Every structure is written in structure tokens, then in C-alpha cells.
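Annual report, structural modelling task.

Input specification for the pyridoxal-5'-phosphate complex:
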Amino acid sequence: MTKRWNEKLTHALKSNHVATQDTSFLLYDVNFLEDIFKNLKNEWPEKTLHALAIKSCPLINILKIQKEFELGAEAASLEEIWIALEAGIKEEDIIFDSPAKTTEEIEFCLNNNIYFNMDSFEEFERVKIIAGERDYKCGMRLNPEIGKGTISHTSVGNKGSKFGVPIIGNEEKIKTLFEENPNLVGVHVHVGSQGMSLDHLIKAISQVYHFSKELNDLSVFDLGGGLPVSYYKDQTAPSLSEYRQTLERDIPELFDSKLKLVSEFGRSVFANSAVAVSQIEYIKNKNEIVVHLGADMFLRWVYRKEDWHHDVSAFSKDKDFEKRPKEEYQINGPLCFGGDILASELSLPKLTEEDYVIFHDCGAYTLSMWSRHCNRSMPKVLGVKNNEIFVLKSRQSKENILSLWK
Ligand SMILES: *Cc1c(COP(=O)(O)O)cnc(C)c1O
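The model returned the following structure:
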């Protein structure tokens, strides 16, 4: 676990990019990401658009790399469309999935040739009025109601989920809509994020696919994201390649057909590509380590330990570090509430304030879920490629913090 990062961390800490105020930073393994991007491009049918979920990793410099590999972006809000466009992603490679699209946002998509998935019949009624006689293309999110995964909060493919049109009971209505509306060309299914098994995901896609065969003029099949990752060093998760192979084995027609496939992977692309590093500010009461990242970056982990986890290790410039006797530590975040504790009963080599705490698998849904509680600056983000260190995003400045509040 640490081995993969040791050399990269040594380079990062030696680089002139870690300044005194960079008490914490993230480090993305760009070679690792580029391999994933390359495989996505090579292993899927040529017509596939991989619209990676911006909400999992909105770093514009990473979106620019996505673009080099001809990948697109999935936007959950108008703001995320701005992010994609800023990175140079073409309008036709953006998928807009906000569940609360305003009239202005729909208008923006229509004017800019941005494909969107509708969440409800009501939304489609509104789109039709706004569009009038204009030509456009959109899809409809369908809910196969296959039940929840292991994490209730991030499951959305169950009966009563707040997203999508349930297929059951609406079969005829959906078919009629497709017959009557040539602009409605796609279906979309996304049943959750993390906590979904491969079987669960394939079952959902399969149900939607088999229903969609009855729809008139279908040309886009958007299979969403949701592939889980492992947050534990001794566990594995299905790889993106395995997922593709299983899909192709179980639903071969999906790969042979004339349909344009769209994917919206987020976590499975980014989570394992970065670590977060914090200086040790204090070691108090012998075993309490005070670090510079807490519930501001690890919102879910701090508040819902039963569902979320990050492995924690330590890094030292001292090469005999691993030989030190082990101690048990508690890792305290920097925020002003008692629950801001990241880990406890953690066995690590005896630490000093010269060492660093490393949080693993921080590439997705960490910085992008940053909370403003206590108003600490978002950390710098570094990238490493072929052992070279560069800045992907600077540390949030004083001006930027002040402008948020006036
Ligand atoms: C969040 C989300 C995704 C990405 O999910 P991951 O678990 O990160 O792969 C894709 N599509 C939609 C509609 C989403 O809400």
C-alpha cells in the first residue's frame, strides 16, 4: 500500500511545490490515471462516450487530460458544465444529469447542443414546452427497481428512490413517449455509488436494456457509473475491464448493436489514483496525532464510519522509520467539534512531528465534497507523472476564502 507511494511521496516532498503553508496536500498518480483512460478508450466499442462524473473529481487539469484521451464528462449541475467547458471538453461530449434542471439550464443545453437525461415525466413536459419546434437529443432515466446496495444513502435503484422513472407500471407510457417524440433517443440507468455489487449493476443494466428494446428509435444507452472500489489494502474490487467483460458476456447485444454507449464512471476511475498527505502538527497526550485534514475533506468518513473508510499509513523521510517500535494512535482532524476524529487504535511506527500521515484512496469524492466548516483552505493538489511533480491545483488563497463570504 505505502510502497506504491513511497518514491512518489519522496519526490513530492523534495520538490519546491510543498511550501510551509502546505500543511496538507493531495497527490495524484497521473500515470495510473492515464492507463485507465487509455484502457477505457481501447477496450470499449469505438462509439462509446465515457463521460466521467465530474462530481467525483472536478479538477480542471485532470479534465484536460481526460479530453486528450477523448473522454467526456458527466455534469450534475450547471456549474459542472462550466467546469467541463473550461477544461475544453466539447459540448457533444458532456452529459447533463442534474435532477433539478431549471428552465434556464434546459435552455442552455438546447442552445449549446448538450445532451441531457430527464429524471421524470414532469421534466419532459417542461422540456417540450421550452424546445418548441427545435431539434435536440435527450434521454430518460429509468429505474429498474432492483433494490438497494450495502450503502443506503448512495443507493438510487430501489423502489421509492428519488431518481428516475420506474419502469414497472409505466411501460406503456414510456413506449408512447418514445413513439411520439423523435427527440427522445436514449435511456439512462444509474443505480448507486459504492456498495453495489457487479451482479447488482449488471442486473440493473440488463433489465433496462431488455425493456428498452421495445422503444422506438433508441440510439443512446447510458449505463451510468456506480462500479465500487476497494478502500482496504487487503480487499479487491472488480476492475473496469472486468466490468466491461462481464457486461459483454451477459448482454452481448449491447456491444453489437448500433447503440451509442455512454458510461458515467467516477469513483472506479479516480478513487485509487490519489493519496492525501498531512503534516503532523502535534502529538498530544502521547498518542493523539493532530493533522490538517478532517471532516472538511472526509465528510462521509467522519460522519458515517459504518459505511466509509480510508486506510491510513505514515511516511517518514527517515529510512529506518519502519524499524521503530509500533504505537497505537488516534488521528484527530483540525475542526472544532469533538467528532472530528479520523481513525483510532491505529498501529503505526512511533511517530514524530517530522513525519507525515497518509490517507489512501482519496482521488474521488474527497476534495469534491469539501465542507466549509471552520473555513480552512482547500489543500494544494499535486500530480506525479514519470516521477515528475507538478501542481494540478493551488492551495486556496486568502482572497478566494474572503470572496466566498462577501
Ligand atoms: C454520481 C453519479 C455517477 C458516478 O457514480 P460513481 O459511483 O462515481 O461511478 C454517475 N451517474 C450519475 C447519474 C451519478 O449521480
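The mean pLDDT is 95.
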